[in-house]
Write a structure and sequence with these properties.
This protein is an alpha+beta fold. 14% of the residues lie in helices and 21% in strands. The protein has a five-stranded mixed beta sheet.
Length: 105
């Protein structure tokens, strides 16, 4: 089973199973990792904001224009590592993906 290593807002790191084909947002939300995802994954709320670990940045899809515009408006935006987890489809190639849930705005 492919996994994701996620540090939640309390700073605690968990290793959770990731279902291939789901989005990273769905995996984090279903595991109660502090991802509200209030828009349900339609790239319009930014409550699924995560910081992707530097070692994984080349493996995740490039941010789309809408995604970048939205995530740049968050108070905790980090150039490079900020991604919306609803825009990352989980694949076997992402087994071991390491990320941190961004603070809520
Ligand atoms: S769930 Fe709303 S932008 Fe990702």
């Amino acid at each position: 089973m492919a996994v994701i290593h996620v540090t939640n807002r309390a700073g605690k790191t968990h290793t959770i199973p990731g279902k291939v084909g789901n989005t990273v947002m769905e995996i984090l939300r279903d595991a109660n990792m502090d991802v509200e995802a209030i828009c349900g994954g339609s790239c319009s709320c930014a409550t699924c904001h995560v910081f992707v670990d530097d070692a994984w940045l080349a493996m995740v899809p490039a941010r789309g224009a809408d995604e970048l515009e939205l995530v740049e408006q968050t108070g905790s935006y980090k150039e490079g590592s900020s991604h919306l987890s609803c825009q990352i489809k989980f694949t076997e190639a992402l087994d071991g993906l390491t990320l941190t849930v961004a603070p809520s705005d």
